Amino acid sequence: MNAPASPRFDNSFAALPEAFYTRLAPQPLSNPHVVAISDEVAGLVGLEAELLNSPEFAEIFAGNRLLPGSQPLAAVYSGHQFGVWAGQLGDGRAHLLGGLRNEHGHWEIQLKGAGRTPYSRGADGRAVLRSSIREFLCSEAMAGLGIPTTRALCIVGGDQAVRREQIETAAVVARVAPGFVRFGSFEHWASRDRQLELKQLADYVIDTFRPACRDADYPYAALLADVARRTGEMIAHWMAVGFMHGVMNTDNMSILGLTLDYGPFGFMEAFDPGHICNHSDDQGRYTYRNQPHIGQWNLYRLADAFLPLIGRPAQCKAAVDEHYGPAFEGRFEQLMRAKLGLRDGLPDDEDFIGETFGFLQQHRPDFTLFFRSLAKLPATVDRENMAKTDAPLRDLFVDRSACDTWLAEWRARLAQTPWPDAERQAAMRAASPKYVLRNWLAEVAIRKAKTGDFSEVQRLLTCLRRPYDEQPEFEAYAALPPDWANGLAVSCSS
Questions:
Q1: Is 251 a catalytic residue?
Q2: What whole-number distance in Å separates Cα of residue 361 and Cα of residue 137?
Q3: Catalytic choice (39, 91, 207, 251)
């Protein structure tokens, strides 16, 4: 029997000088076995079904066996962590295998959790099954939500013991993205006054990912402006679905405007703009409300790194200021108008959106259920039947009279730009997911996986691919979190 056809890797990043990385093979994982596969991502990168179903698949994506053309490497970068310069960092537990090019584009595959590298800083270089499941599911959930993100091809588990807060088992996530260059990749060379390497990296990003910037009068300023715009739009998407990254360090920010590095993330439940989803974030730097500000702060650090390329501090700052704020504000207002069912924008919409968030902050309904329930309501209702008609939303509030007052204001706004209920409700559902990866859902899948039952991971993946659809077979996944989930906490070890 012939072995299944294997993809042949190339690696554009490996064409950079060797100062940018260290070449080394992943460390073998004992007893590798497939935990989950995203067939959607497999199709994206062009993997054939024969390979997906073969015994070789687990060996390849555990890092035990290299594919033709693979030049595995770990990249160096630096960064600011929790607002403090951390110096040199790098891929401490990730190995870039190479890229696959097809009609869908160029896709780099990186193994996260594949063992020590020169950048591990004394750590073991491994990821655990728990965190690998969370990253796999959230990567694919964010893609389902339409948010720019890295993707996840698969999880391969093993029986190797790993010490975290307790002894756990190792696993490897195969991450997929056009590229994994970070803000910190530029900070690294700028901090060392290595202008040649800084220019080489910027040229690589422009030529590989953003060729239109080359035609601009100032290509490096155009690249910085592009990053600022994409980052603003990405964070607007986060805010509109209640996503909290948890660790917005500059080394966790993608130069391509992708959501990168899923650790202690969370989706908002009872609305609290000061919610800290990362148990390690003692100062609350990365709360939900702070994310737009932190995005801009991180871009200013990137602008500092670009200064040797651009030459003028004012132009660096302008590249951020003139593109990040307008991109964030414009996209966020667009998304919120859609969630609220506002057909056409009016001058007072920004105030109404702000008042709505103030209302949510005061009464703390479940964020996802609030907007999804709102999409069920008619634009007009007679007073006699109001309580019954509005029950899907009113039941989320202790103070139902406050809900009634807000609903009256909302309906008054709808009346200013009316459209048929069926069309409006469909548009609202398309902007307000029914299903997000709540921590308790991930925890159920993790607990089952630890017993060797991986079915819940795949079942959740199936649901989260279509988060805006009703999917009655997954109705339980849209419920409020159970009481036992109140004590769940995730940290940087997650």
A1: yes
A2: 28
A3: 251
